[in-house]
Structure formats: structure tokens, C-alpha cells
Amino acid sequence: MPSAESRPAPALVRLRDVHLSFGASPVLKGIDLDVFRGQAVTIIGPSGSGKSTILRCITGLLRPQRGTIEVDGTRADLLSSERDEIELRKRVGFVFQQYNLFPHLSVLDNLVVAPVRILGRDKASAKRTAYELLEKVRLADKAHAYPGQLSGGQQQRVAIARALAMQPDLILFDEVTSALDPETVGEVLTVIRELVRDGMTCVLVTHEMRFAEEVSDAVYFTESGVIVEHGPANRVFHAPANPRTREFLARATDPAQRAQHAQGRADRAAARTALPLELRNFAI
Q: What positions belong to coiled-coil segments (predicted)?
């Protein structure tokens, strides 16, 4: 019988047979997914394939009709109270497509408010941590600026720092560069790259295929709410077993197709911005 030391560590995140529908429209059709502590896992696939919905299920924003979702032993699909939801979200950071910063608060206060109110940290300690995180995302000089005074890339880096301020076990990134000008995409990807290098457990949804190949330990390809293929990043990107994966990657890495996808993402981002704030994070 193997010793406790030789047994593989359990997955930090474990989804099994997860099904979710919006009304009569099925979105997830039996999702199995594992994320181990210290891993970077990327979910790729065409728009509308259920990628963002998977992230929302992991953090309890959406509840599946069937299946199990465990986050470090907590059943995210069975949260029974607002207190349980808050406890889970203390441990799971979420960075959305839209930055969702409080426009009336300074950058510093955006990072301080949740650790003080939710974690109960004293304000002086929370401020020290906030300054350290702003240094990490190269925005220490913007601590007293307001979100409206920042570029999109700067706002997204603040959003990442805000997620880190809660000291989560896991961070979910949902197409965080999709609404950005191409010139600012690199600065956000650099921050994420450094987090992965430092061992932060991450789950990413992205259309940046080269970046996904570079940073990911494992990749899941989804289509129509199903995991079509998954495996180590090098194998999925260079020797995919499924013809649909090969077709998707060929198109996703073609310059003309990338430009078309970028325009589509910009159009979707504009449409999301037109929604009321409370609805934006639930778009698929």
C-alpha cells in the first residue's frame, strides 16, 4: 500500500459530469475537468462553447442542474447560503473581461475595500499589501488615480491586483484581454505569465493561442458544451488527436482568422458594456 507521501495530491478543482442549461438551451453537457495546485490550465474553443460558463460554475456564480464541482473539498454546486458563497469566493479570485472596478474609488481603495470588509484585515495592513501588489503589476505610480484615468490595460492590471489582494488559492481569468487595444494586451499577459511562473494556480479562458501554449500545463478544448480533447499543452497544440481540435487551432493561429476573431471579440465586448452592470458577468 503506497505511503501518504507517495499518493498523488487530490485535484484542487474537480468537475465531474457537469450539465447546465439556460431554459431549454443546454450549455454544458457532461464536463469533466481537473486542476491541480500550482497548475495553469487553459480552456480554449470557439465562442459560445461553454468556456466562460465553466469558470462561473467553479466559483458558484452558476449552479449546474447535474454533476459535482469540488474546490479544495468544498462542493461549489451545493452552496446553501450567502455565507457559503462568500467563503468560497474568498479563496477563488475571478478576473472578468470587463474590469468592474469601482469608478468612485481610487486604485488603492479598489484593492483595500474587500480585504478590510470581507477578510477583516486592518486598513493599514491592507494598504501595505495593496502597494506591494501595485508594484507587482507595475502600477505603483497610479495608486491615487481613479479607474477612469487609466487605459484599459492598466485597469485590467488593477483588476488582477485586486483579485490577488484577497490572497486566493486559485484565480480564474475570463478572456481578460478580449476588450483591450492590441498595444495593451502584452502588458496584461506579462502579469499573468509572472503569476504562473510564481506558482499561482490559474484557470484561463483565452483566444491567445501562443500565450496559452507557453504558460499552460494542461489544455481543454471545448465545443458545444463538450470537452472534445484535453491533455498537456505541448501535445494538444502540436499533436492534437481530434480532427476538430486540429481544425480549430489551424484557424485560431491564422493571421486573417485572428483579425476576424479580434473584431468579433471587440463587438461582443461593446455589446456587454451596453448591458446593466449586474448582468455583464453572466454572459456566456
A: none
Claim: this prediction has a pTM higher than 0.70: yes
| Structural domains present in the chain | 13-276 (3.40.50.300)
Q: If you search the block for the grid coordinates 482568422, which residue do you land on?
A: 257
Q: Which long-range contacts (CB under 8 A, 24 or more apart) does 13-17 make?
A: 13/58, 13/69, 13/70, 13/71, 13/72, 13/170, 13/203, 14/68, 14/69, 14/70, 15/54, 15/57, 15/58, 15/67, 15/68, 15/69, 15/70, 16/67, 16/68, 17/66, 17/67, 17/68
Lookup: cell for 57:
460554475
Residue 262: the pLDDT is 45
Environment class of 241 (CB within 10 Å of its CB; exposed 0-12, middle 13-18, buried 19+): exposed
Q: Where do the H-state alpha helices sit in 149-254?
A: 152-165, 182-197, 209-215, 233-238, 243-252
Provide the grid cell at 256.
486573417
Helical spans, DSSP H, in 8-149:
51-58, 82-91, 107-117, 123-136
| Rounded Cα–Cα distance for residues 61 and 99 (Å) | 17
List pLDDT tens digits, range 44-77: 999 989 999 999 999 999 999 999 999 998 999 9
By residue count, the chain amounts to: 284
Q: Inter-axis angle of helices 107-117 and 152-165, to 10 degrees? A: 20
Q: How far is Cα 241 from Cα 75, in angstroms, rounded to an integer?
A: 32
